[in-house]
Structure formats: C-alpha cells, structure tokens
Amino acid sequence: MQTHLKLRLSVFMFLQYFIWGAWYSSMGTYLANTLKFEGTQIGAAYGAFAIGAMISPFFVGLIADRFFASEKLLGVLGLLGGVVLCLLPQTTTFGVFYPTLIGYCALFVPTLALGNSLSLHHLADPKQDFPRVKVFSAVGWIGGGVILSLLRGEQSPIQFYLAGGASIVFGLFSFTLPHTPPGKVGQNVPLGEILGLDALALLRKPSFAIFIACMFLICIPLYFYFVNMSIYLTELQWTEIAGKMTLAQVSDVIFLFLLPVMLKMLGYKRTIFLGILAWALRYFFLSQSVGVAAAPQTALIFAAILLHGVCYDFLFIACQLYVDQEATERNRSATQGFIAFILWGVGAFVGTLLAGEVMARHELAPGGPLQHAWAQIWMLPALGATAVLVIFLIYFREPGADGEEPGRNTRFGERA
What we know:
Distance between the termini: 26 Å
Shape: globular
Number of domains: 2
Structural class: mainly alpha
CATH architecture of the largest domain: Up-down Bundle
Number of strands: 0
Strand content: under 5%
Oligomer: single chain
Order of helices and strands: HHHHHHHHHHHHHHH
C-alpha cells in the first residue's frame, strides 16, 4: 500500500510543479515582448505569487483545516486554477492581467502547503520517504519548461494554456488521493496561530532574530533572478529558454540529496552561508556575462543557472530544517508558517517589486543589441547578497553556541 501511495504522491508532485514550471520562468519574456509591459509592471506581476503566499495562511487556517478534506479541496483548487490560467491569455492590459493573476496565485499557493501536509500525514516514514517523493516536484518543473520550449511558447500565451490544461489534470488526479479529513473540525483557531505569531517568541533568541532578518533581506536580491532572467536571455537571442533554465532543477535534485550530508558535516551556519554565497556568485557571474565573447558568456550564464541547487537547497531547505529544529512541538506549525510568510510572502513581494523597478530604471535607448543595462542590473543584487552574507557571518550563531539552548533533533522539513 505504501508503494502505491508513494507512486500517487510522486505523480501529484510532478503535476503540481509542472504547472508552475510551465509559466513562471517564462512569464517575464511574454509580458515584456508580447504585451509590452513596463519593468515595474513585470515586477508587480511576479509579486502576485507573493500576494498568494500571504493569503494562503488565512485560507488554509480558516477554511482548509476546519471544513474540507484536503484531497477534495486540492481537486477544486486545481480545476478552478486551470480555468483562470486559460482566461489569462484573454487579458492584454495590466489592469486586467494583474488582478487575474493574483486570483490564480491565491488558488495555487495553498495547494503547496496542502500537498505537503497530505503527504506527510500518510507516509509511514516521512523522514525517508518525503524527500524521495518531493524530488518529482523538480522533475515536474523540468517537464513543464522543456515542453514549453519544444512548443516555442516562451513569448506566447501557449504557456498559460499548457499550465491550465495541466492544472485541470492535477485537479482531477487530486480527487484520487487518500482521504484526509480536516484536522481542526469544530475548533476555534486563533488568528495568531493562523499567522504563525506563536513563533514570535523565538525572536527573543538573538541568533534566531538575526536569522529571520537575514532571510528577509536575502529575498530582496533573490527575486531579481526570477523576474529578469528570461528577459535577459531573450535579449541575448537565446532560444528554448525555458528548457535550458530547467538545468537549475537538475542541479536542485543533486544538491537535495547532498543537503543532509552537508548539514551533518558543516552544521547550519556554514551550510546556509554557502547558500547565500551561491546567490552572490550567481549574480556576479551574470554581471560579468554582459558584453563578452559568446563562449565565456554562455559558460558564465550556465554556471549561474547550475548554481540553483546550492542557492535553493542550502538556503531555503536548510532554513526550514533550522526553523523546525528551533521550534517546539507546540509551535512547529506556527513557526513554519511564519518563515513561509517571510520568505514567499513579504520578502518575495518586496524583492519582485524592486527587481521590476530596477529593470525599468536601467532601460537603454532603442537601437542597441540590448534593451537594458544588464551589467548594472545584475551587480545590484550581487552586492545586496554579499551584504547579507557579511551580516549573517558576523552575527548568526550555530544552535547551541554562546549559551543558547540547542534545538531539538529534527526530521527532514517540508519543501515549498
């Protein structure tokens, strides 16, 4: 039964991230070159996902946990999301596209938490089995990007139809998942618990407070990659961009398996340090790739893409594991909700808006090979990530250092 369950959950993860991978990386190119949106509008469009992340805790805490079985809610959200995605290509002005995209993200983002929760609830050995199931999320993202490139849909509305069709399949498949009744039927869930405010008590620990501040600050330069990368590669006249960018997820799979080993050898501080360092190096490589010969330019760009496994796993996944270790049984869920709100909500919203604003301010006069001053654009997040790296290195302490109470042993955390 567990083998069949893991197979179904693997398909579920594949479909969920296929949807995301089919449009997220390439949307910037479509908005810039097809709909002719401005840089600030493109940044705001990417910020729609952050708005969905900020809405998600209310939705999950107030509705999902108390009234609906998870598999049924996942099915409904998938079907509704598919319809909205197929409506997006009909919107060609920012005033209509933006709120429609926010509506879609508010439907999709809750499926991430619900899917992880459902999986962890039914797997007999979550510490061992959940990472193996979750690997198929990276495979799904790769599948979405590769198929989009084969369809040559990076600059066309095909990406939304592809993602919308996959979302309908995802919704229908979700109804076949194991029955998972709401966990808080009839309970009066405090608003503070929904928002993860119970986790604020941990901020009394200096290292944890520094950690939260650094995670918020790193999100600001981090989202320059997602907002600007496909636009940059399009201006360089690359083809099959979505497919080539999925090499990031190949790297993701490799480093996901290496993460437990690195944490055991290096601890949290050095592992997360490497994650932040990778972001600084990624942007430095991109800034140096502007205006050089074709061969070194290609090498630098692919190096930046392939750093994704270190960037994501050594930062975000290690971050979730550290938070899980520092939390208690009582406030574990609240603490994970709080860090998700910081990383994918507030941090992402600020980062995407700033990335769009910087791109708009570095637009070049028409007629040249590039439409933006990319060396300056990429250097800004490189310097920002370096500043966060210095703060983290100086002030963050390994759990148990300087007399702080060491955290409990942890199991492998969830991955959004």
